[in-house]
Amino acid sequence: MGEANMADETYDLKRMQRKLKKYLDADRYQHTMGVMYTAAALAMNYNCDIKKAQVAGLLHDCAKNIPNKKKLKMCQKYKIPVTDLERDNPFLLHAKLGAFLAETKYDVTDLEILDAITWHTTGTSNMSMLEKIIYIADYIEPNRYKAPNLREVRRLAFQDLNECMYRILKDTLGYLGKNPKTTDPATEEAYLFYGNIHNSK
Ligand code: FE
Ligand code: FE
Fold first, then answer.
1. Alpha carbon of 32 to ligand 2 centroid (Å)
2. How close is the Cα of 6 to the center of ligand 1, in Å?
3. Which of 133, 132, 164, 160 is nearest to 149 (CA)?
4. 68: CA distance to ligand 1 center in Å?
5. How far apart, in whole angstroms, are the C-alpha atoms of residue 150 and residue 30?
6. What's the pLDDT at 2?
7. Distance (Å, rounded) from C-alpha 81 to C-alpha 94?
8. Rounded to the nearest whole angstrom, what is the distance from the C-alpha of residue 120 to the centroid of ligand 1?
9. What is the CATH number of the domain that holds 140?
């Protein structure tokens, strides 16, 4: 109960937005605002910390517009481990690197927020409520239009987070063609985990 107030005082959203705007292109900033508001709405719906959802939503893509070469260089410099799959698909690194920048450049110390940023691209097994909210908000925010079944996924988001995770992962893996060479193991694990919950209903 008391945790919301802690986050309320700690984070200055306006200040973060002003800074973030310098590092994102216009479309990415628009998407980011969509994720922030959608995450806040989901947090309201599920009685999760609204301020944490806003901060995580706001910063989830803060490393997105860093050129891929620079992403790899930064990971090397700051000793952030890079898998073979990430080396071949450096865009994946914006999640880990985003969490790193949130901590070091935006002074976010809350591990729940940092983890939500870390896992927003791949998902993983056994996610926290905040992690699921950010993963889902990223997928359904109002500026999105390309994903399949968006109407249904958006409806599910406000009804059942686990079922919504399963649906998104299923559609995402369908889209990636279940190719183990291009699918992050964390996404596979997430799909199995939320598939089990789906099947045990
Ligand atoms: Fe992202
Ligand atoms: Fe995003």
1. 6
2. 26
3. 164
4. 14
5. 19
6. 47
7. 13
8. 6
9. 1.10.3210.10
Domain tally, the chain: 1
Max distance between CA atoms of the chain, in angstroms, equals 46
Which pair of tokens denotes residue 56?
């995580």
Residue 11 lies in a domain: yes
The residue segments making up the domain with residue 138 are 2-148
User: Which of 141, 137, 97 minimizes the C-alpha distance to 118?
Assistant: 97
Q: What is the CA radius of gyration of the chain?
A: 16
Which stretches of the chain drop beneath a pLDDT of 50?
A: 1-2
The verdict on residue 166 lying in a domain is no
Structure confidence at residue 178 (pLDDT): 62
Cβ(80)–Cβ(96) under 8 Å? yes
Work out the number of other CB atoms within 10 angstroms of the CB of residue 128. Answer: 14
The answer to whether 24 and 62 are in contact (CB under 8 A) is yes
Q: Say how far residue 175 (Cα) sits from the centre of its chain.
A: 18
